[in-house]
Amino acid sequence: MISSPLLSPMEEEPYLEIYLDQCLNQDEPASTSSHLFSPIGPYDAYLHISSNQETLASHLEPSKDTSDFSSVDLSFLPDELNQENIEQTFTEGKEGVEGNHETQGDPSRLQELSEKNNNDICTHNLSLSNSGLHQLSDGTSTLPSPENSNSSFFPLTSMTPLTPMTPVSEGSGIVPQLQNIVSTVNLACKLDLKKIALHAKNAEYNPKRFAAVIMRIREPRTTALIFSSGKMVCTGAKSEELSRLAARKFARVVQKLGFPARFLDFKIQNMVGSCDVRFPIRLESLVLTHQQFSSYEPELFPGLVYRMVKPRIVLLIFVSGKVVLTGAKERSEIYEAFENIYPILKGFKKA
Amino acid sequence: MAYQLYRNTTLGNSLQESLNELIQGSLNTYRFCDNVWTFILNDVEFIEVTELIKVDKVKIVACDGKNTGSNMQNE
């Protein structure tokens, strides 16, 4: 049975880079899919589903040299985006999300955690922002575009002559913000929910209503549903790393209560993002022209529900110009979906 | 047509409520088990018409039923 024990930040970095390589090589579907399937007969499907890390590890060496984002110069990015990156890494590195100035209950433990996570959160954020943003070219292509993916990496300055990826269309310049991440993990041991509810802080257990303990922690601000089978759902985090961190904290709480909790098969199940296009939208016209994707019933719900096929994302589009994107398993799907919808929305701008 | 994303927010809403209280108010911990609520509050002021009582820590144990019973223990 393949299990994924807790990886140290050092061990996790290469996997993040592999993920980023896959984002870059999006226009080479043949090679990307070959990463996912290793030539072992009857276990193909099982490997594909549960052991991305295993197959990724086998490709660690060859793909590592094509892109290393840890030393990327971001100064060419427009100020607001650059600021965003810095703020994100800063706040997440310090574990003080959204100006939460509450004193930490367990400073030594959290300090150690924040140090450990500082590295992978910082590089992670930088890397992810880069891979997400490379599509947001403002006339100048940013990081290695698909055409140049095989060439060596150039340090980008304002003097560097660049050919735009798509000469006609520009990126939207808007980055959807992640609002919620839902993830699951298997603690791999039977749990006595009553004992957990009685001894843990901030727990609710009402077996008549719902057969799980609902536990919350302050930092990251998340809620977990813990089931007697040992499986756990973690919601409310604002990033993938925070979701994983929160899930580990919940697992530790359970462990401290005396259960042999492990941390198996952590998987992000859903990601929700939102943003604002800053102009009003004619939803009626949009539903007429995009009938096969949209449903708009203002008497039921004021937002238009747009079910995008590729990537498979559901967007809630409102008259005000606010957009909610959900159904993603990866951050890049949110970004991609928004980049796809933005030109369509521009075509339906009001007045 | 049930939208799964709203099930998410139902949970998120109860999260907001509880944690807002935690951050803004003085709720230290809460517990709900066997239909009994247990709250621990810090730095609480009990204001009666005549008197004002300030307390560092309050444990509230509350259960409901037909004849609602509610106990309060000060520490």
Summarize the structure.
By secondary structure, chain A is α+β, with helices and mostly antiparallel strands. Chain A has helices spanning 9-24, 29-36, 44-50, 52-58, 60-64, 79-94, 107-133, 193-199, 240-256, 283-289, 331-346; strands at 177-186, 203-205, 212-217, 222-227, 231-237, 264-276, 294-295, 304-308, 313-317, 322-328. In chain B, a hairpin with a 5-residue loop joins strand 3 (52-63) and strand 4.
Description:
The complex is a heterodimer of chains A (351) and B (75). Chain A is of the alpha+beta class and 351 residues long. Chain A is built from 11 helices and 10 strands. In chain A, strands 2-3-4-5-1-6-10-9-8-7 form a 10-stranded antiparallel sheet, with helices on one face. In chain A, strand 2 (203-205) and strand 3 form a beta hairpin. Chain A starts with 8 loop residues before the first helix and ends in a 5-residue tail after the last helix. By secondary structure, chain B is α+β, with helices and mostly antiparallel strands. Chain B has a single domain (2-63), classed as Transcription factor IIA (TFIIA), beta-barrel domain (TATA box binding Protein, subunit D, domain 2). Chain B has one helix spanning 4-24, and strands spanning 27-33, 36-47, 52-63, 69-74. A 4-stranded antiparallel sheet of chain B has the order 1-2-3-4. In chain B, strand 2 (36-47) and strand 3 (52-63) form a beta hairpin. The termini of chain B are far apart. Mean pLDDT of chain B is 75; it is low at 1-9. Classes of the chains: A alpha+beta (351), B alpha+beta (75). Chain A binds chain B through residues 100, 102, 180, 182, 194, 197-198, 200-206, 214, 216, 218, 221-223, 225, 235-236, 270, 272, 305, 314, 316, 324, 326-327, and chain B through 3, 5, 8, 11-12, 14-15, 18-19, 22-23, 29-35.
